[in-house]
Amino acid sequence: MSYPYPIPATPRVISPSPTLSESSERQDSYFAPVTRSAAKAQRQRSPQPEPIHEEKDGSGSDSSLEKRARARSRSPIVTTNSQINGSATGSKRRRMSGLTSIKPVSKSEPLTNGALPYPQSNGHLSPYDRVKKSWREFSRSPSPLGLIPLHRHYRNLIHKHEIPRKVLHVSIGFFTLRLFTKGLQSWSITPWLLGGLAIIGPTDVLRHHSERFNRFYIKVLGALMRETEVDGYNGVIWYLVGAYGALRFYPKDIGVMSILLLSWCDTAASTFGRLYGRYTIRLRKGKSLAGSLAAFVVGVCTAVFFWGYLVPRTGPFPNDPINPIMFQNRLSLPPIAKQLLKLEPNQGVIVGNAALAVLSICTGLIASVSELVDLWGWDDNLTIPLLSSAGLWLFLKAFG
């Protein structure tokens, strides 16, 4: 029996790409363990699927609308109304009809997770002034990473542990002891400090007004700098000012000891504070109990070595002033204290090793406190020699 109507042809059906949930279901299903050789052989045996070329005969998708078929997304409709970098993006609604445009999509702005965007330089030296609220929030230990190229290449050696900077710090202490044993007086060293300050100070000011010179300066001396000094003044300036004040206005042994405390105690506090500061209590921002204890121990050892071993074996020299050494292996209570305690003039006096031990403990405390305190935000290279020399002078003036 024949039918008057022809049988329609079987339509071509193109299976859409699997959705995310279908792919995950396949991945989550169990497969028996297969060795790498068997998997390689299976891939070689499996023929690669040939691409299907659709004919544009009008039966496919509508090309005039520039649309193509796509599996319907199972994600909910997303509506965003946010602000990025201070400009409103407006309300955007994603179409879920299964048809998406093949036109290129513009790249969106990077998300900032609520933080301020990375500032762009406007020709000045530092683009960070708009980010930090005050210079006190710019912690010096550890300093931010990325401003000096050498800090990125040698992150552990230069940026984290500051090995070149600490080697320079420690070597200045040994150089000071060398000059002391040679009989050089304080008034012959201070002009050299002023000369260095006259060169380094204007150079540091010049690099803040010339971006090209600043890049050259950082390239040459970047290993000895902290990255916070890129937009600030170099710590060498404060080092020279502090050393000049200690040597110019105090006796010879007090000035030398203050430089030794700056050179060795500050380095010990920084090293042990970074290594073990996380395990101890925090005394203030950037200062821990581990660093303060390290400064105290190194200060005690430095005082024992200097006043107990080096000073008795050095000098006197022909050009020494009258009483160049303030500590004479003797400590005594002030006369007012003796009167209040009703002591004889020869009482309340300690000499020899006992006096050295008391002075050494006092020196360690002064070194630890001067390294800890924040004096109007001044640099440690300035506050440590000034505070330590003033503290030692007051102690020996009262009990010496």
Written account of the structure:
Helix 8 packs parallel to helix 13. Strands 1-6 form a two-stranded antiparallel ribbon. The chain has a two-stranded antiparallel sheet with strand order 2-5. It is elongated, with a radius of gyration of 37 Å. The protein has a domain of 264 residues. Helix content is 48%, strand content 6%. About 20% of the residues have low confidence.
Keywords:
400 residues, mainly alpha, two-stranded antiparallel ribbon, 13 helices, 10 strands, 6% strand, EC 2.7.1.174
Give the structure's gist in a few sentences.
With about 400 residues, this protein is mostly helical. It has helices at about 20-30, 35-45, 150-155, 155-160, 165-180, 185-205, 210-220, 235-250, 250-275, 290-310, 335-340, 355-370, 380-400, and strands at about 65-70, 80, 85, 85-90, 90-95, 100, 280-285, 285-290, 330, 350. It has a domain at about 135-400.
